[in-house]
User: Which sequence fits this backbone?
């Protein structure tokens, strides 16, 4: 394996891990409510900007990261309470439009709370590149990959071993039946928004030392995360991870071996193809027929 | 009936009195928010600061200046709408603004149609090539930046270079200009890569450049966070060739973002960045130091060359208004075209009917980043 290929793979995996975290956030909210939360990217932005803000204010990095994730979680909960819950019973399309509105509002607020400049967060453990098979990687890459693996493991445990997690799964399978069994759908929605926001913010904090952060980074990262979720199959946890990593690798290899000018094009063409030929995604079951 | 007639007469008198003191209206649209906010923000602050100062000093032609700024947020469509409003509703006398090339080019047809003197603050050469009757600009054009960089490369014996270009209009225009003028300097472009908007990692593109044979220098045409990521990735991959950035990153923020990775990066920029380091004999020192001190004491933030473009634009406008002795649009336009030897932050402005940039390459200084600060490159 050539050093160049290793470099492309590492790049793809790092970016892909971030896409996967964003895609997981999409999947969790979609499962609980069938809503595609277009404010998902803004959670990434809030995570990064809050961490940068805290570090600039003198907080130690681990605490700053914690504050950022917790803060984004609160924003997620507030979004559910103030915008989504009052509109419950509205068609899904209306709820989706509400999330688009929320994303614009959050971007605007970010320029007021922070500013319009680009910020950076110091790398978690230095910037000296490590060598690996002729390729180089930043220690931050290991943080991104490690944190993603850990998060995925925690999520698996949460959804399969805890009552709240199982309740969310139950609501995603059959909302009415779950409600009849005494599960509070309202609480499930609240938890899933909080969880998604925390996931997005985590992605934001992890990527900020590599790619910087500003008030508008959420747009593109949200879009790529959405694309990853579609590619993997909307609403599927493993699908989101596979979709995210696949998208990252496609981008890196496409830019490396074909043409960097069309990097984003590869990603979006593949998503179009997935929508046409594999509408349920790589890991999706035939959900649409199931529901009928 | 009679009281009404009195009232009408009084109003008429009041109106004429106001007429006499009618302010000179300067219109502007700037990317105060959005992806090019780092351009529009200092530009707006600069315009407001100096309009205030000029008014405190009695205004121009005995009339106060009235500044109207709209935030076009980097959106060409908004720029058009605001320009229409400035021309038709606000009835401004002249315009200074347009942070980005895309926005400037979008309003050029409106400007030309209305016959509005317009000084753009955007970079690309398309704005003034071919010359448009009513459109001028203050920053160096991207072609001049390419030329300045290639002069430096040639002096250091570089003949084979790689380009890596961002997604913006400025980025792409500069890439095109560099490719056009490269052969004049005996420079061959052996690799040509690109990155997209919102990209988080450029190691794939840079690996490709690293593995291209014979690359002696890499030139990054771009602005915003892209060049900072490129610079970081560049050091991560330990590429031996020297790295050049464009004048688009000439702000302290770039050094802050790229950190240690920025060490040794070379770029062309206006003298403003190294105001204190200029020798006292430099004729530009007084202007750039004055502006720098004024701006930094007022806004408590580092000066950038972009705010300097706005300063130059406003000073040229004021000079032209004084020369024309009126706000007659055609006279003001002719006056701008006849501005000679005006010292600005970007260099000496010498406009002519065939040159609506007015600057030559000598206004550009070649800088190298050393120990987290700008130094004059040797």
Assistant:
């Amino acid at each position: 394996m050539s050093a160049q290929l290793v470099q492309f793979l590492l790049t793809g995996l790092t970016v892909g891990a971030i896409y996967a975290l964003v895609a997981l956030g999409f999947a969790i909210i979609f499962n609980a409510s069938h809503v595609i939360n277009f404010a998902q990217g803004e959670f990434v932005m809030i995570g990064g900007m809050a961490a940068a803000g805290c570090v600039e204010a003198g907080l130690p990095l681990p605490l700053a990261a914690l504050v950022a994730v917790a803060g984004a979680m609160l924003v997620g909960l507030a979004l559910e309470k103030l915008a989504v819950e009052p509109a419950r019973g509205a068609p899904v399309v209306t709820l989706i439009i509400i999330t688009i509105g929320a994303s614009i509002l959050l971007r605007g607020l970010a320029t007021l709370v922070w500013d319009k400049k680009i910020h950076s967060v110091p790398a978690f453990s230095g910037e000296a590149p490590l060598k690996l098979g002729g390729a180089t990687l930043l220690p931050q890459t290991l943080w991104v990959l490690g944190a993603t693996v850990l998060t995925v493991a925690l999520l698996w445990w949460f959804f399969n071993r805890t009552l709240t997690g199982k309740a969310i799964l139950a609501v995603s399978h059959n909302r009415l039946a779950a409600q009849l069994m005494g599960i509070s759908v309202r609480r499930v929605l609240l938890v899933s928004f909080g969880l998604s926001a925390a996931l997005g913010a985590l992605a934001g904090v992890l990527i900020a030392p590599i790619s910087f952060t500003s008030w508008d980074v959420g747009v593109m990262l949200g879009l790529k995360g959405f694309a990853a979720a579609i590619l993997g199959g909307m609403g599927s946890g493993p699908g989101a991870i596979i979709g995210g990593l696949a998208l990252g690798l496609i981008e890196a290899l496409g830019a490396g071996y074909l043409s960097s000018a069309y990097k984003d094009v590869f990603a979006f063409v593949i998503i179009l193809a997935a929508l046409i030929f594999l509408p349920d995604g790589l890991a999706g079951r035939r959900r649409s027929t199931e529901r009928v | 009936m009679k009281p009404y007639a009195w009232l009408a007469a009084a109003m008429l008198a009041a109106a004429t009195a106001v007429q006499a003191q009618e302010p000179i209206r300067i219109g502007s649209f700037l990317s105060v928010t959005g992806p090019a906010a780092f351009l529009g923000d200092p530009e707006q602050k600069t315009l407001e600061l100096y309009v205030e100062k000029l008014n405190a000093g009695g205004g121009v032609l005995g009339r106060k200046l009235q500044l109207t700024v709209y935030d076009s947020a980097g959106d060409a469509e908004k720029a058009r709408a605001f320009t229409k409003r400035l021309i038709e509703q606000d009835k401004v006398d002249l315009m200074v603004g347009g942070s980005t090339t895309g926005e400037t080019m979008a309003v050029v047809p409106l400007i030309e149609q209305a016959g509005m003197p317009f000084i753009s603050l955007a970079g690309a050469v398309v704005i003034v090539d071919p010359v448009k009757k009513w459109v001028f600009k203050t920053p160096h054009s991207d072609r001049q930046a390419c030329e300045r960089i290639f002069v430096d490369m040639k002096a250091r014996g570089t003949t084979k270079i790689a380009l890596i270009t961002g997604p913006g209009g400025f980025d792409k225009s500069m890439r095109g200009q560099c490719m056009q003028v490269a052969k004049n300097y005996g420079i061959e472009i052996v690799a040509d890569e690109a990155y997209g908007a919102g990209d988080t990692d450029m190691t794939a593109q840079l690996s490709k450049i690293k593995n291209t044979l014979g690359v002696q220098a890499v030139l990054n045409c771009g602005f915003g966070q892209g060049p900072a990521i490129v610079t970081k990735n560049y050091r991560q991959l330990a590429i031996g060739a020297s790295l050049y950035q464009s004048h688009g990153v000439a702000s302290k923020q770039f050094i802050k973002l790229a950190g240690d990775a920025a060490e040794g990066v070379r770029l062309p920029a206006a003298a403003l960045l190294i105001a204190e380091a200029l020798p006292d004999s430099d004729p530009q020192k007084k202007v750039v130091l004055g502006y720098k001190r004024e701006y930094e004491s007022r806004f408590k933030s580092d000066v950038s060359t972009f705010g300097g473009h706005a300063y130059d634009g406003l000073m040229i406008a004021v000079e032209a208004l004084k020369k024309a002795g009126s706000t007659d649009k055609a006279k003001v336009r002719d006056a701008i075209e006849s501005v000679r030897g005006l010292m600005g932050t970007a260099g000496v402005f010498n406009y002519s009917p065939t040159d609506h940039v007015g600057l030559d390459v000598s206004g550009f200084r070649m800088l190298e980043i050393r120990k987290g600060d700008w130094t004059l490159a040797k």
